[in-house]
Amino acid sequence: MIEARGLRKTYRGRKVSVPAVRDLDLDVAEGEIFGFLGPNGAGKSTLMRMLTTLLPPDGGEATVAGADLRRHPRKVRRRIGYVAQGPATWRLVTACEELVMQGRLHGMSKAAATRRAAEVVDALGMADFADRQCGTYSGGQRRRVDIALGIVHEPVLLFLDEPTTGLDPASRSDVWQEVRRQRAAGTTIFITTHYLDEADALCDRVAVMDHGTVVAVGSPAELKRAVGGDVVTLRFADGTDAATAAAVLAKEPGLQPVDAGRQRLRLHVPDGTTAIPGLLGALHEAGTRPVAIELHQPSLDDVFMAHTGRSLADEEGPA
Ligand SMILES: Nc1ncnc2c1ncn2[C@@H]1O[C@H](COP(=O)(O)OP(=O)(O)OP(=O)(O)O)[C@@H](O)[C@H]1O
């Protein structure tokens, strides 16, 4: 559904240039929910804006929904839906009016657009509020309207740019449900997110993006399996203790402290239950000890960390 080779984009300013997407290759199969996970500034929106024809790439090739991005951008536009980050609705019109207008923009007759708007309102469970002005909607309701606007013309491929950013948990799960429903109806979904749990729960495959490139791609389970072993997180009373522990444990054979965060140290170990006594022994000898220990299977954050040396959760706040 999407095939991209060597896509790149640099924003050139008078003083500095920002290489936002660098030689990126991508394959998205028909019918999957494909996620791009990465921190703020990783290049996710830039990539999406290129794939949706809104921003010309500096280089590279892509076929999107069966049409060549450079040679046939109009064909691409006809076949895709795009839901940008901010709300796309006017405050004073109703969702129904917006949907009819959107249908007409896609070339439908008034009667066809009205019919399709009613269909979409029904499919997305918007009947309770679709005749009210958009300015009165909750965040989740507004996001649902945004998605509705993206699917009025029945695209085969739907792009969603951070669709749940800023939503409360209930609204997020509404959006997830809607995304799954669209996929079940045959639409391929391309989604960007910086929420670890969203990528994990919603996406069939995830590309982990950092500094304009893909550092890992696979299903969430595959990516986590590839990290392997267990993750031990040690928490310390202060940053000095954490730094001492990092220095001590770095000398232990087979141990690699991967994240010497403020008061925390994370370690990848082949088997957590057998590794913990040895870790504690080494720390005790060095005169330091953790205030808490956690043992868990690798998460997508551990995947991100294994490839970048940083924690996405730390960069974005709790996800
Ligand atoms: N118009 C622009 N001019 C200059 N730099 C830009 C422009 N748009 C984006 N950038 C820079 O390009 C890089 C990638 O930005 P982009 O918006 O694609 O990231 P993102 O992964 O979508 O981030 P976020 O999660 O915050 O939306 C960032 O460093 C950003 O500051």
From TrEMBL:
GO terms for molecular function: ATP binding; ATP hydrolysis activity. InterPro entries: AAA+_ATPase, ABC_transporter-like_ATP-bd, ABC_transporter-like_CS, DrrA, DrrA1/2-like_C, P-loop_NTPase. It is found in: Cell membrane. Its main location: membrane. It holds the Pfam family ABC_tran. SUPFAM superfamilies: P-loop containing nucleoside triphosphate hydrolases. PANTHER family: ABC TRANSPORTER, LINEARMYCIN RESISTANCE ATP-BINDING PROTEIN LNRL. The lineage of its organism: Bacteria, Bacillati, Actinomycetota, Actinomycetes, Kitasatosporales. It is a peripheral membrane protein. One of its GO terms (cellular component) is plasma membrane. SMART domains: AAA (SM00382). NCBIfam families: drrA. This is ABC transporter. Residues 2-236 form the ABC transporter domain. Keywords: ATP-binding, Nucleotide-binding, Transport. Belongs to the ABC transporter superfamily. Drug exporter-1 (DrugE1) (TC 3.A.1.105) family. It comes from Streptomyces cadmiisoli. GO terms for biological process: daunorubicin transport; doxorubicin transport.
